[in-house]
Amino acid sequence: MAEVDDNSSFEATSEKQANTKVDDYIAQHNKLAESVRQFEETRKKILKKKLREQTYFLIKTKKKEKAEASEQKEEKKEEDTTKDNNTAQKDDNVDIDALSKSCLNKGIFFGKSYEECELIHLPQYAVAIPAGLEGLKRRLLECEYITIINNNNKNNNDKNEKRIEGNVLNNGSKISELQCTPIEMAQVLKSWFREVLCDDPGFVTLKLLEARTEAEVKDAFTELTEPRRSVLLWIFDLWIEVEQRCNKNKMTLQSMSIVFSPNLVRTGDASNPMIFLQYQKEAQRVLEIAAHLRKSGQLQFDTAVLFLIPLFSFFLKPHLYKKKNLMYCSFCF
To answer: Structural domain of residue 38, as residue ranges?
Structure first.
């Protein structure tokens, strides 16, 4: 009996010890699990911190790169501006009045070929432009107003134009000294285009006259030879600048195409005035389209400078272009 009690007591003690060991094991396991959990939390916090630091670093780096890029862009812009200013200063350093003093004389500026005029290079055009035209343009744009005179006053306008050519231009006066109104200066501009020697159909080509859509106009302009193209672009730029002053004048691209087009076309067939009128009508239409394309930036070409003006077919055969063989039409500007 005593032996049975001893066995029961031993088993109870063993079970108790086993339970204690299990409890200890579970406690250790839980403690280990807690340590692992805390480790994971700490690791996650460290990773999050590193991620935040990396993100902050990347953002800071991106901002720095963006700032540097912006700074470089500004520096490049300043360099380009400086270059443009230098180009403009170089252009401004050319004494246009001095150049124009000789080329505005009657017999030198009017009724001659393009190559015989004093020329000045402007960076926006591939070939040099007659200095007298650029001088008149700058003087014209300094005026407070530019307007259209009724065509019924044509005789009056012709007299004014003759007065300018006879009393001022023959004396070789500088453009800055011209005593004339904006209308009269505009008439002098038109007079040059009307009298410069060029072949049929004038400053425009037959392909350009036949163009109907904007795409056809751009295609025809692409095929234009120099100096035709640069001179026409110069004209459009003048029209655009004048139109920008519409609050001080009544001029639009349409009205300027109307008054300019008769001076930009030629026909050697004096016996058939209808040909000239047809050229004039088509030129008015197509030049207005081209001017709008130029205004919207769709008529841009390579301006690589041609310092030496070659002999273009545009100005060949000067013996064919005596006044008696040409059709002229004078409109008011």
So the answer is: 1-93
Q: What tens digit of pLDDT does each residue of 224-245 get?
A: 888 889 999 999 999 998 888 7
pLDDT digits (tens, 9 = 90+) for 30-69: 888 888 888 888 888 888 888 888 888 888 888 888 888 8
* Residue 167 and residue 120 share a domain: yes
Assess whether 132 and 175 both reside in one domain: yes
- Distance, in Å, from the CA atom of 170 to the CA atom of 180, rounded to the nearest integer, reads 15
Q: Please, what is the end-to-end C-alpha distance for the chain in angstroms?
A: 142
Decide if pLDDT at 110 tops 90: no
The helix (run of H) or strand (run of E) holding residue 207 is helix 206-210
- Residues 154, 262, single domain; the answer is yes
Q: Cβ distance 94 to 120 under 8 Å?
A: yes
DSSP for 7-74, please give it: HHHHHHHHHHHHHHHHHHHHHHHHHHHHHHHHHHHHHHHHHHHHHHHHHHHHHHHHHHHHHHHHHHHH
- Alpha-carbon distance of 66 to 61, in angstroms, equals 8
